[in-house]
Amino acid sequence: MLDTVYSVIAWTVLVIFFAATAIWIIEVLVVGQARKRPGEYDHSEIHARVLTIDAQDVVQGTVDSLPDGLGGVQVIAEREIDVDGATVHVVPEEFTCEARRKARAVEWARRNAPVDEEFVLYLDEDTIVPSLPPFPDVDVVQLMERPVRTGSWLCYFAEIFRMGFQIEQRTFPRFCYPLYAWGGGFAVKANVENEVTWDVPTVTEDTNFIWRAFADPDREMAVLPVKLLNQAPPSIRAMITQRRRWISGAALDSHLLPRRYRALSLLRNAAWGLVVLSPLLLVPAVTPVSVVFLPGIYQLGILVQVVCLFAWGFLGYWYYAERFRVLLGLFLTLPVVAILHAAGAFWAIVRPTSTFEVTPKVPPTSVTDEVVRDAILDRGVDTDEQPRGEEREEPMTKSQ
Predict the structure, then answer these.
(1) CA 56, CA 10: separation in Å to the nearest integer?
(2) Category of 181 on φ-ψ map: left (φ > 0), alpha (ψ -120 to 50) or beta
(3) Would strands 221-231 and 140-148 be described as parallel, antiparallel, or unpaired?
């Protein structure tokens, strides 16, 4: 009896994994990357909005990294801060709307700090912009990301692993509904933003917005292969909390999707969260206690999943163009990294959250990643105050 129960559960989890993996492979190898659209809007037609609570030093690094010639730069803050090179707007405490937290600030900006440029480019406070090409004539432009390490190596490895999986973003313009969005490098035409608005209660305002926007079948999206630099969670706890919010928001907002996309989203999220239980699938391989149905096929399915796990890790390493020793560290820890990466998703499945907890950030001059240092040095940011490899004694600031 116990073997039967185990077999049913193990096969169910394995089938979910296999289905999600097969869909990803079809996306990347069959659907393929969307065709490249020509750039038609230069920097003068792009207005940048940087979102923060009050992380002045972090935001200053982001503003300093922006290219010259932008139509304008706004900082939307919750408290008074002083940032050179940008107009700072503070969201009044008395402002109320349906949106909450970060989306509330964005909605206030949409209503009270309008822009004349064609595009509004949204950046998180810790987003460094090494380069910015002209934008194509589409409704939404998604830029890609390259998280950098600020603390835990395991969290950094988890981000490399996530980027390997997330190369699927390049196929999203071919879908009627993009499967998710990244708000730290997200541009939308101002007229589309005013039509869709941000005024809804959600904890994942970027994905929520894009799902509502693409309810109009005429909307178009482009994904540009520009890697904006943002900060990986500094601790395992911060990463788990972040992932929990992502999956909770996607699940709570899934009603915005048509039935087939809703099923796809829930399947993928379930596969992500159930990785936490994946060690239980190996019980038949390490102990004689349990026997599964069709053991030969079962073992082949396990092998396929293990190969895909390391393939995503390698793709992330290739995407990052990291040092070889980083690949060794990633591969040595990948089973643990995958479980930690999935812990927040599993928590969201068991107990979804509707709250928004901030993730700690540090000023970019405190980041030892050479890619960040090269980017900010190219922009003339003074890093002499912070020698390479040392950490500031000041406490971390917070971002939304």
Answers:
(1) 50
(2) beta
(3) parallel
Count Cα atoms within 13 angstroms, Cβ side, for 9. Answer: 17
Please count the other Cβ atoms lying within 10 Å of the Cβ belonging to residue 197: 17
Q: For 140-190, what is each residue's pLDDT tens digit?
A: 999 999 999 988 999 999 999 999 999 999 999 999 999 999 989 999 999
Q: Under 8 Å CB-to-CB from 359, ≥6 apart: which residues? A: 233, 234, 238, 241, 242, 398, 399
C-beta separation of 243 from 341 below 8 A: yes
pLDDT by residue (tens digit) across 241-270? 999 999 999 999 999 999 999 999 999 999
**Of 306 and 393, more confident:** 306
Q: Is 140 in contact with 219 (CB distance < 8 Å)?
A: yes
User: 300: Cβ–Cβ under 8 A, 6 or more apart, which residues?
Assistant: none
Grade residue 114 by pLDDT with cuts at 50, 70 and 90. Answer: very high
Looking at this protein, which amino acid is placed at residue 186?
F
Nearest-5° Cα angle at 259, 256 to 263: 100
Determine the Cα–Cα distance for residues 153 and 193; give it in Å rounded to an integer: 38
- Tell whether the model's pLDDT for residue 359 goes beyond 80: no
Is the full-model pTM beyond 0.70?
yes
The pLDDT value given to residue 308: 96
Q: Read out DSSP for 194-260?
A: HHH-S-S--S-HHHHHHHHHTTSTT--EEEEEEEEEEEPPSSHHHHHHHHHHHHHHHHHTGGGS-HH
Q: In terms of Cα–Cα distance, which of 2, 239, 200, 213 is closest to 103?
A: 200
User: What's the Cα-to-Cα distance from 82 to each of 63, 75, 87, 162, rounded to whole Å?
Assistant: 12, 10, 9, 35
Quote the Cα angle for 190-65-134, to 5°: 45
How does pLDDT run across 198-253, given as a tens digit for each residue? Answer: 999 999 999 999 999 999 999 999 999 999 999 999 999 999 999 999 999 999 99
| CB distance 344 to 326 below 8 Å | no
Contact assessment for residue 344 and residue 247, using Cβ atoms and an 8 Å cutoff? yes
CA dihedral (302, 318, 223, 190) positive or negative: positive
Strands (E), the chain: 46-51, 72-77, 87-90, 119-124, 140-148, 185-189, 221-231, 359-361, 397-399
Tell me which residue has tokens 């917070």: 398
